[in-house]
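Ticket reopened. Same input as before:
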Amino acid sequence: MITDGLAQQPAAPETEDVSMADYIALIRCKASRDAAARLVEELRDTARGHDSSMVFIHGDAVASIPAFANAAPDPGADWVVCRTSLARRTATDMLPQPFRIATLTAFYESVLSANRIDSLGLGGQLCSKPGSAAKRSESGPLLLEIGFAPLARHQHRETLEMALGAAALELDATVLFTGEGLAHLEGVAARGWSQITDFDLLDLHCETPARRFAPEIAVPTLDPVDVARLRARAATILIL
Amino acid sequence: MNRQQTLASAGQIIALGPDGHLINPEDWSEAVAEEMARRDNIELCRLRWWLVYFVRDHYRKYGMPPLMRVTLQAMRRDAGVEDASSKTLYRLFPEGPIREACRYGGLPRPESCI
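Engineering reply: fixed in the latest deploy. New output:
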């Protein structure tokens, strides 16, 4: 649950305004106070090279909002919190300045216009792969990489929702499961992913697994060469 | 919208949450949906029933309601509405087609913001 640090804050504005940010950072993992302070500093440095910036806080990262707030986040950036992620973790919609609430759909609409998108996935892996840091072409494909096994129901659901958000807007997106991320396709919880293949919403692939796993749905396997090709082709890589 | 906290159907008192969704999805029946529609002063026409059952089936199979995109795809293919668009869905349930289909279908309020 979110900490008491939010209890005395005024209600955050909820807007569906699409942020036309030049630079976007997606943060999905919970950060310690020190890690949050470092991240805020890094984001400030990166944002200096861009006309406008947005930080989208999704999933477990919501629990780090007090830590981000304490680290004096750049008020010039648009600090956006996923409405559903917040609602799942707290009954309050009270957030400190400069945070505001918006939907995952609004995030993806912003992605369409951004020139650079960085992502900090659930496993704490920062995406700095070639392609994401380069100038994006508007129609360039999006690669969603999942390499972290869900440790809780929310993590499973919210990772799936990241993919469904791209599907809802009919983005040119592909999902790649790597390493322990293949666990998303195992067990009863995998049924949510099967709607993506049943309705042909996105392409799903998995990297040749290092261990035996039992996916509930059939997902084409890629060898390391094809995985490298997929990454190279992507204009943007989001590490989930 | 101000909704009552209970609903009477076929001699049963059905509990509703503050958002008008059934507290216990097992209480759902077509009669319950009809009673909700009577209160809301709408008719559950063929397309509204199609949407309610499509959302129920999707929820049972995938554990969540369908995307609008998926619903339209199915509506064009299975419900005989070849030119179905989001306007078609919003004409059926102006307050949110998927959310309202969940409510009439006895499902929880969708929790996702997609």
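The first helix of chain B runs from residue 30 to 40. The beta strands of chain B are 6-9, 12-15. Please confirm and we'll close it.
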